[in-house]
Write a structure and sequence with these properties.
This protein has six helices and eleven strands. The chain is an alpha/beta fold. The protein has one domain (4-208): Alpha-Beta Complex (Spore Coat Polysaccharide Biosynthesis Protein SpsA, Chain A), CATH 3.90.550.10. The strands form three sheets. Strands 3-2-1-4-9-6-10 form a seven-stranded mixed sheet, sandwiched between helices. A two-stranded antiparallel sheet has the order 5-11. It has a two-stranded antiparallel ribbon with strand order 7-8. Strand 1 (4-10), helix 1 and strand 2 form a beta-alpha-beta unit. Helix 5 runs parallel beside helix 6. The chain is globular and about 50 Å long.
Length: 210
């Protein structure tokens, strides 16, 4: 029986905790690791393992921090800005789909923003993305060189996975992503442009090397 660690980053927004806890209650997770990225006041919840950063280390670095700390077979990166759509238990359903060489998540995307030279590149949206811990470590985790808030980090992780022969799979989970915690401290247009250029360069390099 596979075990599940959930890794969630937290920066302020403690008002999201009640809905988040409802989602977690239906997960059958063996552990929940909260990476507190310098919240003020600090994040506190006795039910979860909390790793406190004194400053905001950003999405990719904190995800990798949680990945290293996880003790289960499977690691799920799950945003905090979520709420349940039903009270259905979903953890075993997720674990049933996961095995070596596959990444699983709640939302598969191949929008126009994924295209490189006119070719759409499917990926699992990073707000809910899971894989075997050993696989994620082998892939190198999240690329910390992307500008925060790490737009295209999930594209990059999934692309590297598929280049190694991994499969990507969507699982219909009873979780709604609200998408409302992106910080206003970033120049988001600048981040998107710079991170897309980096992602596209990686894709083109991989294509040239085939």
């Amino acid at each position: 029986m596979k075990t599940l660690s959930i890794v969630t980053l937290w920066w302020n927004h403690l008002d999201l905790l009640p809905d988040y806890e409802k989602v977690i209650d239906a997960s059958c997770a063996n552990e929940v690791i909260i990476i507190d990225n310098g919240s003020e006041p600090p994040f506190e919840c006795d039910a979860f393992k909390v790793i406190r950063n004194t400053t905001n280390r950003g999405f990719s670095r904190a995800c990798n921090q949680g990945l290293r700390a996880a003790t289960s077979d499977v690691v799920l990166f799950l945003n905090n800005d979520i709420k349940p759509t039903t009270d259905r238990n979903w953890g075993e359903e997720l674990l049933d789909k996961i095995g070596q060489g596959i990444l699983v998540g709640a939302q598969m995307r191949s929008d126009a923003h994924t295209a490189v030279d006119g070719i759409l590149i499917s990926y699992i949206d990073g707000w809910c993305l899971a894989g075997m811990k050993d696989d994620l470590i082998e892939l190198g985790g999240w690329d910390e060189s992307y500008l925060e808030p790490s737009y295209y980090g999930d594209n990059d992780l999934c692309f590297r996975a598929t280049e190694k022969g991994f499969g990507l799979m969507r699982v219909d989970l009873p979780i709604h992503h609200m998408g409302n915690t992106t910080s206003k401290i970033f120049d988001l247009n600048k981040v998107r442009v710079a991170n897309y250029a980096k992602f596209a360069a990686s894709v083109r390099k991989a294509r040239r090397n085939k």
